[in-house]
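Dear Dr. V.,

Thank you for agreeing to look over these. As mentioned in my earlier message, I'm a first-year student in the group and I'm still getting used to reading structure tokens, so any feedback on how I've presented them would be very welcome. I ran two proteins. I've put each sequence directly above its structure. The first is here:
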Amino acid sequence: MFHNPFSVGIDIGHHSVKAVALAQKKESVELAAFAEVVLPPLVINEQHNVNAEHLLSAMRQIKKQLPRTARHVALGLPDSAVISKIIQLDTNLNNDELEFAVAQAIGSSSPFPLEELRLDFFPLDGAEMAPALATLPYQVFASRKETIDNRVAVLSKAGMKATVMELQTHALLWLANHCREAERLEGIYGVIDIGQHHTEFCVDPPDSMAFHREIAFGSSSFENGAPGRYADDNMMVFPATDTSDAERFTQQLADQLRRQIQLYHSTHPRFPLAGLWLCGGCQSQILEEVLARMLNLDIRWLNPFQRFAVGRKLVLEPQRQYCQFGVATGLALRGALR
């Protein structure tokens, strides 16, 4: 399964950097290490540009908390930093012609000049039928060179190497699928990742590419909720809220999610949601039974470490779910299976 002793997933957010290292142990996957380092304000701006000096300092702190030989990294990119497009291309094109056609298609729709972008593309399901088809759908991704290159350069200076670049949404869906199979759940489950300022909603329906929406609502949006703080170990924690505060936050979250769920059902009527996985660092602010009742869905917390064996040197707090490590864990899984 693993091509290297360790697979590391690194999630670079606006407020912190989170890393998870997984190791192959015989027939199981073991949680080898995890770490979170808080970033100073404005290390990453709204255009996804990074302050390399501050990010490098955080990466070096992360590296010290990982196994010495854990250098190969699957790095996450925010969905809003990536242009995603499906295009139809002739099946008789050679590689050079494919690259030219993809560049032309992205160049005509991108707000950025083509020379400022990095591109990746691959044929979608049905490639085996290509000889019998005139055209074939290709998934194309594009992101600004500055967005990718600066992050890769910082990793390199910290002694690590980015071997996989993946969308954060895809990382969450990798983890959710792993957990769904482990629990043998039936039906379609979406993932909700609740941050301080934004909430990610994503689903992986069988009939199409991943459905994703970013909602401008997070733990700091609740007008009566107390803000989160960081403990001495750099882990995000939220102060306990009384039931009425948590219920109001849950109701506001349900109102935001209901619109996106209706949109998903309108575009994927054959694959209705059976439930939602919740992750992010705001467990104390959400009442899952209230959310389940308001949305009429099965609601479960996506504890990313629950389905792995734990290394001997690690100690997990029994009452803690570590849900803020969802993206990093999904990235580590993705890197292991590359």
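The second protein is here, in the same arrangement:
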Amino acid sequence: MKKIDYKKLEISDIDINLFSKFNRYQDVKKCWRKENGEWILKEIPFVEQWNTDEYKFLVKCLRNTVNEGGAVFGAFDNDSLVGFASLENKFFGSENQYLQLSSIHISAEARGHKIGKKLFYLISMKAKKLGAQKLYISAHSSEETQGFYKSLGCVEALEYNLDLVSKEPFDCQLEYTLLK
């Protein structure tokens, strides 16, 4: 993998062709579940592989994010998208302290090259610039995904966004404090 190029995406950049070589594949073995107030790692095997309809829906969501003043960043290897992350522009929380990191995904073959870490950093800088105190992440509960977020310093959210919990009840609700 050569040098990865990162850029903020405009609406005109976001279409189904952007994802033509993107591989959202994950072979999940274990997931975190909260039982009786404690987090437990459980055997919950499944394979996640996005299809064309999911990519079409994603394009709609990412375009909407940009339309509403949020941001989408892409990571490119030889002009092929290998990672992306999105930040919504709707504050929430008891003190309007949160902005949501709504997605961060790395193509299967590009994982392990710190692309996700760089995208997380770009989103954090944008959220800070917009005035957020914390990022809010409704994150996949898989062992690998949670390990990624914990390595960056994310912790269980002090306040849960109940709308996001209702949409993805098995996600782990996380937050990341943006340093001043």
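From my reading of the second output: The longest helix spans residues 52-67. The longest strand covers residues 38-49. Does that match how you would interpret it?

Kind regards,
E.
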